[in-house]
Amino acid sequence: METASLAIMFTLTLLGFWAATWVLSASQSESVIHLFLHPLVVGPFLVTIFLILLRIDYQQYRLANEPFFFLLDTAIVALAVPLYQQFYNFRIAVKPLLITLIFSAFFASISAAGCALMFGVDISSIASLAPKSVTTPIALRIAEKIGGDLSMTAGIVVLTGIIGAIFGPVLFNRLGIKDDRIKGFILGICAHGIGAAKALEISRKCGAFAILGLSATGILTALILPYIVLFAVK
Questions:
Q1: Measuring CA to CA, which residue among 137, 187, 189, 142 is closest to residue 166?
Q2: The CA-based dihedral angle spanning residues 217, 168, 111, 142, taken in that order and rounded to the nearest 10 degrees
């Protein structure tokens, strides 16, 4: 593929993100529509339109945007900084955090795989859907190892994160949850990286607990998910 074509597709991603952030900032923050104007909703929508209009193959587009996947992996390592800063707060709540983590990570994987299996979905699709609650870099590695479709996994992971980031804070308000530790940990487990970004908007403590949730969920899911998929095959 020509270097110029790769550069154009790479630039398309940047322009899509810039346009999406502009749309978000131009909207009224009090409106209901504002909740659905997250850059990870608007950006992919705009890019998809251009890919269809320009008849660009997704695999070519993915190849052109490989640098972003490298940055995703790097960002996961950088999450160690806020984790270290809140280490004391983690220690004093280790038991309830551990119980919540084990139940939530197991349920997230088993619910996705179980529902897909119940509807007669093929094993490749089950493997693609199962890592839905794991942050994108880890989810892609898991899906690759268990035979999933990477493009499907990326899509469902982003969708899961967006839903969690949009409706999580609304649910917290309805349930009267005010503890930033609880908010962050739930957002991290259920909405991974996107939820963590939302948690950081709430407070540093909330963001740190979200990062703990997404990191621990990623590790635990990587350990148990292959066995769940193996059981589903049988």
A1: 187
A2: -40
Burial class of residue 67 (count of CB atoms within 10 Å of its CB; 0-12, 13-18, 19+): exposed
Judge contact between 150 and 131, C-beta under 8 A: no
162-198 pLDDT, tens digit each:
888 888 888 898 988 888 888 888 888 888 878 888 8
Distances (CA, A) of 110 to 5, 19, 24, 88, 212: 41, 37, 35, 32, 21
State the Cα angle at 103 between 73 and 92, rounded to 5°: 80
Contact 1, 61 (CB under 8 A): no
208-231 pLDDT, tens digit each: 888 888 888 887 887 777 776 666
170 touches 77 (CB < 8 A): no
Largest CA distance in the chain: 55
More confident residue, 59 or 203: 203
Which residue matches tokens 């593929």? 1
| In the chain, where the domains are located | 1-64, 72-233
